[in-house]
Amino acid sequence: MRRDTPSDATLVTAPQWESQPRSATLYEDPDKESKQLFEYDISSLALGFVPFPYTAGYTMDSPAARRFSTSAEERVGLLSAHRDSVAKSQQYGTISADDEIERLLSQNEGTVEELETTAGKEARLLAKYSVPLMITYLLQYNFSLVTIFVVGHIGTDELGAVSLATMTANITGLAVYEGLATSLDTLCAQAYGSGRKELVGLHLQRMVLFMLLVTLPIGAIWLNSGWILAALVPEKELARLAGRYLSILLAGAPGYAIFEAGKRFTQAQGLFNASLFVLLIATPINVLLNYLFVFVLKWDLVGAALATVLSHNLLPVLLFVYVYFVNPHSLECWAGFTRDAFRHWGPMAKLAVPGIIMVETEWLVR
To answer: Which of 70, 90, 147, 333 is the most buried (most CB within 10 A)?
Structure first.
C-alpha cells in the first residue's frame, strides 16, 4: 500500500487560534459552543458601560490580554450593577452622568453654552422670586395672628388658651409638616431640572401620603393635649381650653400639610405666584370667617378654631384651582396617581429629617 507523502497531499494549515487547546465538550456539543459564543457577545456589551482594562493591539488570545480578561459571569454582573444604578438614578430624577449634564447645558451644535449675567440681572431675578415668597409666608403666618386678635375680644382666659394652643400646634405639628416639605425643595427641583417632569408629581404624591401618615401621631398628641398641657402648666383651666382648641384644629391639619407639599410642586416649576394667589384669596376669607363665627354667631373659642380649620382646608383647594385653570401648563408634571407613590420613601425621609430639625429649632428658639 502506497502512503501519501507531503508532496502528494495538500497541506492545510490551521489558524493559530485553533492550535490552542480546546475542551472536548466544545466539540461534542455544538449547541453549547454557540451558547458560549452568545454569552461572550452579550457580556462584551459591558465594555461599553463598565471601564475595562483593554489595550489596543492585543488579541483576546494573547497572554497579555488574558491577564486583564474577566469571566463572562463577572462582566454580566458589572453590566447588571450599572443598569440598576441607572434605573435608580432615573427613578429619583437625578442626573447619572457627566454627558447628561453636558447635554442639558449644550446648544444644538453640541457646544456648552456660556452663561453671562450681571449684578442687575441677578438682583431682578432674586426680587422676582423672593418677593412673592415673602408675602406668601407673611400672609400664611397671619392666620394664627388673626385668631389671637379675635379671641382677645372674648376674654383673657381664651386669649391665653389660644396662644398656648397655637404654640403647641406649631411645634408639634405645623413645623413637622414644613420640615417634611423641605425635602421636596431638593427632589422636585432636581427632577424638573433633569427633564423628568413626571417625577415631580410622583414626589408630591409620596410626600402627601407621608404627611398623612405622620398626622396620626400628631393627632394623638393634639387629642390628648389637654391633660399633657395640664401636667406642664399650673393653670389647669387654661390647659383644658387649649386642649379643646387643638382637638378641633386637628381637622385642618391635612389641608395645611397638602398645601405645604403643593407649594413645592409649583415652586419647583418656577411658579412662585401660585401660593401668593392662594393666600391673597384665603386671607380675607379667614378674617371674614373669624368675624362671622366669633362675633355674629357667638361661637367664641370653638368658632375661632372652626374658622382656622376651614381656612386651612381651603388652601389646597385654591391651589388646585390655580394649577388646573389659571396655569394648566404645570399639569405636564402630573402623570396621574400611581402605585409607585407607596414605594421608595427612603431618600425622601433622609432629606426630611434635617429639614424637620432645622424648622423645629427655629420654632423652639422663638
So the answer is: 147
Q: What is the rounded end-to-end Cα distance, in angstroms, of the chain?
A: 114
Contacts of residue 360, Cβ cutoff 8 Å, sequence gap at least 6: 171, 175, 176, 179
Task: Evaluate whether 187 touches 269 at the Cβ level (below 8 Å).
Answer: no
Query: What CA–CA distance (Å, rounded) separates 89 from 95?
Result: 7
Cβ atoms of 263 and 275 within 8 Å: the answer is yes
Q: Which ranges of the chain does DSSP label H, i.e. alpha helix?
A: 24-28, 30-43, 63-68, 72-91, 98-105, 119-151, 156-169, 175-193, 198-223, 225-230, 236-249, 253-267, 273-290, 300-321, 346-364
- pLDDT tens-digit map of 231-248: 999 999 999 999 999 999
Q: What pLDDT, on a 0 to 100 scale, did the predictor assign at position 85? A: 52
SS3 category, 106 = strand
CA distance 226 to 240: 5
Of 192, 207, 212, 225, nearest to 104 by C-alpha is 192
pLDDT tens figures, 302-345: 999 999 999 999 999 999 999 999 999 999 999 999 999 999 99
**Residue 52 in 3-state DSSP?**
coil
User: Which cell numbers hold the place of 40?
Assistant: 461572550
Distance CA 300, CA 308 (A): 13
For residue 147, the model assigns a pLDDT of 94
pLDDT of 123: 87
In the chain, the percentage of residues whose pLDDT exceeds 70 is 69
Q: What is the pLDDT of residues 262-280, one digit of tens each?
A: 999 999 999 999 999 999 9
Q: Which amino acid is at 239?
A: A
Give CA–CA dist 296/298, Å, rounded. Answer: 6
CB-CB contact of 252 with 308 (8 Å) = yes
Q: Which residues of 77-97 are buried (b: 16+ CB within 10 A; e: fewer)?
A: ebbeeeeeeeeebebbbbbee
More confident residue, 131 or 82: 131
